[in-house]
Design goal:
The structure is a single chain. By secondary structure, the protein is α+β, with helices and mostly antiparallel strands. The protein has one domain: Alpha-Beta Plaits. Helices cover about 25% and strands about 50% of the residues. It has two helices and four strands, in the order βαββαβ. The protein has a four-stranded antiparallel beta sheet.
Length: about 110
């Protein structure tokens, strides 16, 4: 069992999410670090129902949906992996990158 690093990338836009995941994978492969991914995670959907007219037409409603997309990249822990992730540039501000260290993860 070896220690691993989980990188979870979240965004509302699929194109920006995929380009950021490609940037992370390119940075890791540049330092020849073993990784697996990007693995698509289930889409998280939030639905909001709003009344169009608050008094007269209660049956007239409008539905909105917010989707958050996620990708997972698993990396073998090393000092070069941390350096590669910390040196990332050109990441869109609409992307959230979460980095977690997982101890004793089985393959």
């Amino acid at each position: 069992m070896s220690n691993k690093i989980k990188v979870i990338i979240k965004s509302y836009d699929a194109r920006i999410l995929d380009s950021t995941a490609k940037l992370v994978c390119d940075a890791l492969s540049k330092f020849s670090i073993k990784f697996s991914g990007p693995i698509p995670l289930p889409v998280e959907r939030k639905r909001f129902v709003v009344l169009k007219s608050p008094h007269v037409n209660k049956d007239a409603r409008q539905t909105f949906e917010q989707r958050s997309l996620k990708r997972l990249i698993q990396i073998e822990e090393s000092k070069t992996a941390v350096a590669a992730l910390s040196g990332m540039k050109n990441i869109s501000p609409s992307v959230n990158i979460e980095i977690k260290r997982v101890k004793g993860m089985q393959e």
